[in-house]
């Protein structure tokens, strides 16, 4: 990790995080003063679709109605990392073999620690594997990778290694696809990663920039998240979305705010780091966020972990509250299906001892909800 080692911070999403950075990006948003959205008419009833005993941090639903979920397994626990829900029950996907990695075993052909999944515009199910055995652990040789699965054959068709674009304490977090480009966030060593989908080669950009580095506390249910040692939890570059026209990339740390940059600057390898940073724009002062989504009209959806609500932010930065509900206990990675439903996994991550000052307040079961919003999905 290249940033100054001033504060050791742990979270369920990543192990070792740093809060210090230098950047030309404005630092005026360091205070926890997120914007307050206007009220929004009820868009539809919140429906609990699935429930289970273990936190899940992501769900995607295919056009055929197949549901896939992600279990973070922060301490390297046994059990599936990726599963398909069949009749409400999780079955390891794409196979039991991909989900049975054990510490000390080879990492090839195994999910070490899956952290994100999504169905891309190519119709493949893409999975981000951090390649870390457990939170706070180092990146294992050959562990970090992107895995693409054909939903028709249920076979892995591509594996893109990520070792060359990561640092020893990196935590590759999330991904979005746009044409031949894959965008990723590094929540361990603050940066965005721009990857060529065809060749697998990539570059780190905005490393240790103010826009990719967490600079304020992370809140949920009105309480700041802390480690068992009482240290504040900070999650660096985390959520990201590509605009439907591919022109803009939105990104943020888990504690906000939300920035954007024109992708043409990210795709220019000749642009100096300082100049690239100057093209970053503050878009919206988001609250502590579990996950995001974007629809075909370019509206962003933000899972507000602190106020247990879902925000809708238009392309011109006008926000409304779609829903506020006490059941949204750490709403995580969002998904819009082809029927206009917003899928919301409620993970209760903030109640786990590792994020709750060492006190376990987790209360199973956890739920996955869906909310009719009438939006057309955009796949990225």
Automatic annotation (TrEMBL):
Pfam families: MRJP. It is found in: Secreted. Coiled coil: none annotated. Residues 26-45 are annotated as: Disordered. It comes from Hymenobacter jeollabukensis. This is Gluconolactonase. Keywords: Secreted, Signal. GO terms for cellular component: extracellular region. The keyword Secreted applies. The keyword Signal applies.
């Amino acid at each position: 990790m290249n940033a100054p080692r001033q504060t050791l911070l742990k979270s369920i999403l990543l192990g070792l995080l740093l809060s210090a950075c230098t950047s030309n990006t404005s630092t005026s948003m360091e205070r926890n003063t997120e914007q307050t959205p206007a009220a929004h008419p009820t868009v539809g009833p919140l429906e609990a679709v699935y429930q289970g005993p273990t936190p899940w941090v992501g769900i995607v639903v295919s056009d055929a109605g197949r549901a896939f979920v992600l279990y973070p397994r922060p301490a390297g626990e046994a059990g599936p990392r990726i599963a398909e829900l069949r009749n409400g029950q999780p079955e390891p996907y794409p196979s039991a073999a991909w989900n049975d990695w054990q510490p000390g075993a080879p990492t090839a052909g195994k999910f070490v620690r899956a952290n994100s999944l999504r169905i891309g515009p190519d119709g493949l199910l893409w999975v981000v594997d951090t390649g870390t055995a457990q939170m706070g652990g180092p990146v294992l040789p050959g562990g970090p990778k992107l895995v693409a699965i054909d939903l028709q054959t249920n076979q892995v068709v591509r594996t893109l290694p990520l070792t060359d674009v990561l640092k020893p304490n990196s935590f590759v977090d999330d991904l979005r696809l746009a044409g031949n480009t894959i965008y990723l966030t590094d929540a361990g060593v603050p940066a965005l990663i721009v990857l060529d989908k065809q060749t697998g080669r990539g570059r780190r950009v905005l490393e240790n920039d103010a826009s990719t580095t967490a600079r304020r506390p992370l809140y949920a249910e009105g309480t700041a998240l802390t480690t068992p040692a009482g240290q504040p939890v900070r999650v660096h570059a985390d959520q990201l979305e590509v605009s439907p026209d591919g022109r803009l990339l939105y990104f943020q740390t888990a504690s906000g705010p939300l920035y954007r940059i024109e992708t043409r600057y990210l795709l220019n390898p000749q642009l100096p780091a300082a100049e690239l940073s100057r093209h970053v724009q503050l878009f919206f002062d988001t609250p502590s966020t579990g996950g995001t989504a974007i629809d075909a009209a370019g509206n962003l959806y933000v899972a507000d972990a602190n106020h247990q609500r879902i925000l809708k932010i238009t392309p011109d930065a006008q926000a409304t509250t779609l829903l506020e509900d006490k059941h949204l206990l750490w709403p995580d990675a969002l998904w819009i299906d082809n029927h206009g439903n917003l899928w919301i996994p409620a993970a209760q991550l903030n109640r786990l001892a590792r994020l709750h000052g060492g006190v376990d307040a987790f209360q199973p079961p956890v739920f996955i909800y869906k909310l009719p919003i009438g939006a057309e999905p955009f796949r990225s």
